[in-house]
Amino acid sequence: MDTIEPSLRRGRARLRISGDVWRGLVLGVLGFITFLPIILLFELSFKSEQMMAESMWLPALPLRVRNYYYAWVFMARPMLNSIVYVIGTLVVSITASVLSAYVLARYSYPGRELLFLAILGLMMIPGVLTLITRFAVVLKLRLNNTYWGVWLPLAAAAQAFQIIVLRTFFESVPEELFEAGRLDGAGEFRMLVYIALPMAKPILTTLIVLLTDSVWNEFIWPVMVMSNPKLYPTVLAILALRDEWYRDADTGAAYAAYAIAAIPMFILFAFSSRAFIRGLTSGAIKM
Amino acid sequence: MSTAARRAELNAIERVWLQVRRRWYCYAGMAITLGLLITFTYYPAFSAIYHSFTVWDGYRPARWVGLANYREIFTSPRFVQSFTNMVLLSGWTVIRGISFPLFAAALVYRMRRESWAYFFRLLFVLPIVVPTSVTVLIWQQLLDPNFGLFNDILKGLGLPTSLWLGDPKTALGSLMFVGFPWIGGVSLLIYLAGFLAIPSEIIEASIVDGASSWRRFFAIELPLILPQVRLLVILHTVGALQSFAWQLLVTDGGPMGSTSVPAWEMYSQAMRQHRFGTGSAIGVVLFLIIFSLTLINRTLIRSEVEFEAH
To answer: Are residues B147 and B270 in the same domain?
Structure first.
């Protein structure tokens, strides 16, 4: 073994480099094509109508930064709306799921198993079954064209996944920590806030990042419940822009608006790529 | 029943009631969740099943019509075509959704240089943060018959151009092409996690045995990441059957129903024509399809685990 090892390693070392180069080439080409639409979007967002008429897709100078100013005037309000939708949904959803997961994990009480089954059972109900009757419920409750009409249904949709993840986490917190808290005279609620929550910070970050991304990108539900343009979130505003600016023909500014709509999630990703990636692969938990 | 037994029963009820009262804060803790779930998930689910047997505008009282909605769904050419489209579209979505990311993940996994592997992983994950609606709008522009990139390239090469989404013959194919080269970031991440969980001794042993890279992939790695493949089959199937973003944002299911799918028909029946009954029935049919496909996939997973135990 000792005699084979060094030569084997040297042989592989040579293979490694050439192998990495062709792998890098294939992946580089695929990556470039994957990114091409995004690159083209940013390119178009700096062009004027005139430049597009001459050649739609080729880059042209000078960069028309003014597009972004026009787009921003239009996008500021929808961006603010989107932030309100995200924060409201986060508050409702995370509060509800933390409380539920905590009592499910820590206490035994009559009906606990049944209640947990009712939450697990949600996994078998696809959104498509409930979409239009949920809309009918929102109409009945007169929540259409209100912030609540977005906050509550989107928070409800995130409950099952969040509770299952959080319950598993709270169950793993050692009982001794709570015993110590109890000896210090802490009440049940204080123990949640001062012992369990600080420990859950990483998993909460993941859940928050994931929900932020999904609320920001959600467009089917807002299309259904929002008819007042003043309440449009970002992704609805750019759709309105597409239809409006097709006629008014300031296409460059429309592309700048698309780019602006994508930027906040890029920033979120830059600051929390680890939580982001952990959350995306945790789709496996959904099994 | 004897008095003793009745008393025992009463005591049992009393005991439970006492426990309920002592643990009142547990129920209080779950109150928001339960309120949300009953209002926005469980009630709508039962409401959809009930109303699938009615004629209903979503607001005024519904009228019971038995199986009429289902009969319409399975006989009207419009809905039958949308189901055919769904089979083609989601079949292709699942195939491309498991194969292309697998190819890319295998290449990233074989990268010997950590920094390169890290770079390419990031490169393929990054597009996830672009909102679906933005992606749809860009691709719509690329496919535009007058100003689109594809027709510009075809013209430059002196080839005949196409109407892409504007022609019933090419519309569905154009939708299938969207997203090329179809390397989904989430799928890639799930595969990579699977690859990295393979014990390194197994890989080392195969290298010592002189197995070629291809053989190593098909004989060792692929069998070991089958759970990931199955997971992605479920995620892509469930996602594909429910999605109608392109229909809502661009095609309206047209031209001439060529890009329509049942999920879109459900939406447009309810939201455009106020036919919530028919919409609900389509939703129930989709639910049954998704439910049975998930069950089939689960039994397959279970048998796999038993097989491994031998």
So the answer is: yes
